[in-house]
Specification:
Layout: H1 36-41, E1 44-48, E2 51-56, E3 59-65, E4 76-81, E5 90-94, E6 100-102, E7 105-108, E8 114-125, E9 128-139, E10 150-153, E11 162-167, E12 176-182, E13 188-191, E14 195-199, E15 207-217, E16 222-231, E17 238-246, E18 253-261, E19 268-272, E20 279-281, E21 285-287, E22 293-303, E23 306-317, E24 328-335, E25 339-346, E26 357-361, E27 367-368, E28 374-380, E29 386-396, E30 399-409
Antiparallel strand pairs: 1-2, 2-3, 3-4, 4-7, 5-6, 5-8, 8-9, 10-11, 11-14, 12-13, 12-15, 15-16, 17-18, 18-21, 19-20, 19-22, 22-23, 24-25, 25-28, 26-27, 26-29, 29-30
Amino acid sequence: MKLIRTHLFIFLAVLGLFACKKDAAIDLDKLVQVDSAQMTKGAIVTVSRDTTTVTYGNVEAKFSQTSTCFPSSEVFAFSASGVALPAGGYYSWQFGDGNIATGATTTHSYQAAGSFVVTLMVMANANNMLAKVSFGVKALGQQTKPEASFTTKFDFPQNLNYVTFNSTSSINQGDIVQFKYNWGDGTEHISSVGLVRHEFPKAINDSTYSVKLTILSNSGCSDDTTIRLTIPGRYNIKGKFKTESFDACTNERILFTAEAENVPSGAVYEWDFSDGTGVRTGNPIMYKYKFPNDYDVIMSVKLNGREIYRTNKLVNAKGENPKPTAKFEETLVWDYPTTQRWSFNSRSTIPTSTIDSYQWSFGNGNTNNEFYSFIETVYNKEATSKTYTVQLIVTGNGCTDTARKTITIPPR
């Protein structure tokens, strides 16, 4: 005897004829003819394609089930035959989940997965049961289609070709029993767990792979999803950048130009000028600093949003208004018959920094470069009056300015 497939379970076959009150016009014993040997051996189960038949005496119950995978909903179809029912007779079904139905044919859907005992009763009327047979069915329930999804992570900074994949797939009912990853590089991996790692081939340039995950549930339903994953290339970039200053002491602008080798086409240059104004892109790029300082400028090369190279160097900037303004006041300190003493007091300014040096020239051959903002000098009187040009040169931010005045020394 060919038995039922393994996914269908026979829980109970039987239970025989019950003694019942006979109707004078109908011989109830002839409706169900079962000898004692068949009752002892129980029901006979046969399977043909997608239909299972349970035979008990001359009572025959058949059932089949549809696929539970979305968009289908699992539905069991039941039918009963083999008995010429008397007037008022009927077939009664109990589905093992608390639901019942009547009729030679009926359908039923189980909401949850599980094994259920279905009972078919042949009824002469509501009070008289002619025969009863029970058999088991295995339901997969509803909403058993899985939803495939997964995440990727570069867990190993020293080897960006080695990637972690973690399935975040879900299913409402049942279990996911298989995870199949197709890496897009000609290889694939099948596993019973969703967390796996894969090392992609090493390449000089960035390589993009279509990674596909296909999942399979214990109900035979499947789903898949694909994402594109870029594996970083190994670029042999070398070099830094150069700077060129324009109009340094009036309206300074600095031109930054990359001098890097082996930069792939499509790469983007990003500049952090380290003054808190954010990142700029371009090459070459002109930039103007507001304040004088030494700035640690960072140049990054990015490809597809990923940094593939970085270099930096200190750049001196003069900022806005870097040039000092030279100015001084002169005062006659004393006047003797043969000499005069004069004092000179610098009133020079610089907007964004400090003055670095004062260089005095008094026109009489005397000079002083010792960082005096206030200084005195003596002039000798001669036979006639004489005019001298006093000059102050101030330096700041590497820029200079000059102020001049003339004084006249009277004759002695």
